[in-house]
Specification:
Blueprint: H1 2-21, E1 40-44, E2 52-59, E3 62-69, E4 76-78, H2 82-85
Antiparallel strand pairs: 1-2, 2-3, 3-4
Length: 86
């Protein structure tokens, strides 16, 4: 089970980095707030004591959450999310 979790985390991190690497948004552009269009940063996780940032994005009608930082864990998904079905 740990191998599956590690693999899923690695894949999610690679997808996140690939999605962000192709971005050429200017510094003065407003941040993306539409999870259907691209990754959305929800900011740092409060009170974690470590540098952790939570991101979300839609994959069809599934909402995917990824925690990037020092805490280890896999992506979380919410199937048939109303946010992604709009």
């Amino acid at each position: 089970m740990k191998t599956t979790t590690r693999a899923a985390t690695a894949i999610a991190a690679a997808v996140l980095l690939a999605a962000c690497a192709g971005s050429s948004a200017a510094a003065d552009d407003p941040p993306n707030r539409d999870a259907r269009a691209d990754w959305v940063s929800l900011g740092d996780v409060p009170d974690s004591g470590l540098s952790n940032e939570l991101w979300k994005r839609c994959d069809g009608t599934t909402l995917v959450y990824v925690l990037i930082g020092y805490n280890k864990g896999g992506p979380a998904v919410l199937a048939d999310s109303p946010e992604c079905a709009r």
